[in-house]
Input
Amino acid sequence: MFSSRKMDFFLIGLLVFCLPIMFHLQVIIQLNASISDVLIIFVLLWAIANKENRGIIASVLAKYHLIIIYILLLIYFCLVSMINYFTNIFVDFPYGVSAVLKLSVNFMYVFIFLVYIEKYKEKILLHVLRWWKYTALVVAIICIGSVLLYRVGIDNGLTLQGRALATLNDPNLAALYLIVSLSFIALYSILKQKKVTINLSMILVLVALFTTASRGGILSIVLSVMAVLFIVFMAGRMKELILFVSIAIIGCLIVYWVNSYSSMISFAVERVTNIGSEGDGTSYRVFLWESAIEMWVRNPIIGVGIGQFISYSPEIFGYTFYNIPHNTYLTFLSETGILGFCAFIWFPLYLISKLVTGVVSSGNKVYFYLLIGLIAIAIQAISINIENIRFIWLFLTIAFVFIRHVPNQGTFLYAQHLEVKK
Output
C-alpha cells in the first residue's frame, strides 16, 4: 500500500511538472503536445491496473458525473458535426479527427485527476497545488530570465520577438498558464492556512505574465479582477472588498516598481494600449471572427464540421484562410453549430454561477481566486483557442471539486486544519 501510494503521488506530481513542457509533434498535421501527454498513458494504465481503484472509479462516476457528462457531450457533438464532411467540397479529415482525439486526451486528464482526488482527498489536492506552484515558479523565472537575456542581445530560443514563451511554444499560452497558476498558488496558500495569501511566487508569476506581452492575457487578468471586485461590492461585503482592493493595489505597485527599473513591462503595456492600431493584427482577427459567424449562419445546427474552418473557407469566400478563428466560442459555433456551442458553454457557465453565488453568500477567498481565474480564462478565450489546452481542463476539474466540497462546511480547509494540528 505504501509503495503504491508513493508511486501515485510521484506520477501525479510528474504530470503537473511536465504539463507546461510543450513541443510540436508532426503526425500528418502539426500538433502542439506536452510531455505529460506521453506520461498520461502510463498513468492511466497504472491506475486501471490497481484493483483498489475500481471501486473509486465507480465513486468518481457517481460524484463527479457532471464534468464527465460535459466532456462526453462535447465529444459527441463534435462527432455529430462530422456529418457535414459528406457535403463539404473540401475536407481536412486529419485535422478534424485530431480535434476529437485531443478532446479525448483531455478527458483522460480529467478522469485521472478525479480518481486520485477521490482516492486521496485533500492530500493529493495539496500535492497537486504544491507542485503546480513549484512548476509555475520555474516557468516564471524562465520567462523573466529569457526576456532579460533578449534585452541584452542574447536569444536563448525561449522568446518570440522579445515576448516570453518559456516552454509553452506561444506567448499567449504562457500567459494563460501563468494566470491559472496565480489562482492555484493563492489556493495553496489558503489551504496551508497562510496568514498572507500574496507571496514571492505570486509576485514572480505576475511579473512573468507581463514579460509575455500577451494583450489578451494582461487584459483578461485586469478585467477579471475588476469584475470580481464589482461582484463583491454589489454583494455588500465591505470587509472582503477592502482586502481584495488592497491586494489589487499591491499588485499594481509591484508592476509599477518593476517597470521603473526595467523596460520589460513597458513593452507589454505598449502592446495593450496599441490594440486596434494599424498593423497590430486586430483587424485580421475581427475579419476571422466575422467569417466564423457567416459560416455559422450558413450551417446553424451542426456547423461546417469540427476542424473545418480553414478547409471550408473557399466554399464561401473563394480562397483559403491560413488561420483558425482565434476565438474559442466562434470556433465551436462555426464548426459544431448551436448544438456544439451549447455543449461547450453550459458547464463553464455553471461553474461561474456557483462561484459568484459562493462569493456573494459566503465571501470565502477560495471562491474569489477561482472566479478570477475562470473569468480571465473566459475573456482570453475570445482571442485564442483554448479548448485543447490541458491545464485549462485541469483548472475546470479542480474548480469543480472545490465547488462540491467547500460548501460542505469547508471540507478541504477543515481537513487540512486537522492535518496541521497532528
Summary: Strands lie at 22-27, 29-34, 159-160, 163-164.
